[in-house]
Amino acid sequence: MRRLLPLGLAAVVLALASLPLVAAKSKGKPAGNLYAVFDTSLGKITVQLFEKQAPKTVANFVGLANGTKAWTDPKTRKKVKRPFYDGLSFHRVIPGFMIQGGCPYSKEPSLGRPGTGGPGYQFADEFHPSLRHDKPGRLSMANAGPNTNGSQFFITVAPTPHLDGRHSVFGQVVKGQSVVEAITKVSRDMNDCPLKPVVMKKVTIYRANAPK
What pLDDT, on a 0 to 100 scale, did the predictor assign at position 28? Predict the structure, then answer.
């Protein structure tokens, strides 16, 4: 005759048996949306990143922002892994159009002309039919032609449909569009570079159900 387990012990065994199932569920897709916060010298800009529609572009941006993706230091010419965007400036701002950043030379202009630098590599365009330059606040990759994406990006302040199919949209401003507008209106030189640098003090990546 098979012996029955005491009631308390049976409950423990049942609880332990359910653990693998719970653990398996926790290994699934991360909960919440992915966001980036640009803490600039003129205020904060929060952007939702479209990781489903533009996974490679978002992964590149997040890796550079977090310092988990290797890039070439323009000063030492060596591969490094540290936050790429912190301390860089928006090197090109145009009222009614956009603000552009992500060039390492904006922090070290003695190494090269701001707007011409990158992370030391390039990657292909990533277009999704649902992501178009059809509204203000679009976060999109700047490039020098097809499949020349690196680290530079821009944020729009108006619909710019002429950029569709040429630049990869990968995010949307959800808080701080007024800061983007303010940056476009700073005094600038003949090359649309701000006379007083507008600095990205820090770019932070986080995941949540709603923007903070």
Answer: 61
